[in-house]
């Protein structure tokens, strides 16, 4: 891999504006998921360095919060400009460590940068209120202030955008941030830190802790009284543990957790567009996204027609290295992910499902799981209950609207849902009945900077992006002015 700017390839952590090697000289290896080759050995930090980052962030917060909104906005805008300028290199680093096709990776860079641009603008729109007083000599005002030092724990599937979606609003609000990226994909985080440094983000305002000591570093972050907010994207199981850990210091938390997204195709849907939406929603990042469609419910009268057209399109999907031209399906992140997906498929087949396409790893590369279509699926199979997180489409059959709404909601998760239909009375009914934080109607792609991203139920709480994303990093303070003469 050739980078135009080799300085973006960093292997040391970033604390207090400095590139930091671990005090014990320990490192961990980062692997290319396509061929399992070692890409780099990255600093493996622990409790000591994490405490140093917390101290640095606390010190930096006192001055960063005092900057005007326009000053913070200008620095964030420089960061956005640098990300845009270097999107090709950032995309290459992302593909190398995560595996997704390069055009998709560059698309993630653009998406990630859009949060920096958006919150650079929103920094100047943090408004308070004046409220009619309850007594004649009282005046009531509310102001919004940054919550303090923020910890962000981010996943491997979107190693760029999941960082900017948290860091940008936090910095715009006036907070200082400590990021712990996933151990599979730390290089993208470090490249972002290099560009943030060049943009003029002051030392200590942004810190990157690279580590494979997940529990040790996580406990240090959650137990610290200095950290006032934790933002996490990842599994529901881990999210629940983090919530418990944050309870001891009553931190504000936001959680973007697991999903089990339904994709419903009603009888009156445009089948061709529904197939197109299914492909887009399911196979992005080889199915390794939290908002990927997970369970496909198709009306019995169009079931065969939809399945046939979908299978034809699935066959066209090119697999291979993310650096190969035209590839749409890259590798899974690791062997455990492959085994998990394969176990779900084998369970479905053992309980009567029919395999239409895929169902195994590629003969040419065992890191790639072939795009898979299953029919005759029922709710007693694991593919109904589990978040698949792989390139698998299990297709369920339904007959009534009431039935499919019950099936779609029959899960503890509530992140994203999708459906296709043309009866607008039905559209409103279904959209309101689905127990999900986000609903795509006649579209399989819903993620955008300007809309609030987040779930309900065990998919978490809090919203990222949009005008609501800033509120996660602000506290509302109420000011009551008394003894005001009414003469």
TrEMBL record:
Q: Where is the signal peptide?
A: none
- Which residue numbers delimit the Aldehyde dehydrogenase domain? 19-478
Residues in coiled coil = none
Query: What residues sit in the active site?
Result: 256
User: From which domain of life does this come?
Assistant: Bacteria
Question: Keywords, A to Z?
Answer: Oxidoreductase
Per the record's keyword annotation, is Repressor included, yes or no?
Answer: no
SUPFAM superfamilies xref list:
ALDH-like
Per the record, the GO terms for biological process are: gamma-aminobutyric acid catabolic process
Q: Which GO terms describe its molecular function?
A: succinate-semialdehyde dehydrogenase (NAD+) activity
Family recorded in the similarity comment? Belongs to the aldehyde dehydrogenase family.
Protein known as: Succinate-semialdehyde dehydrogenase (NADP(+))
- Gene name, Swiss-Prot/TrEMBL: gabD
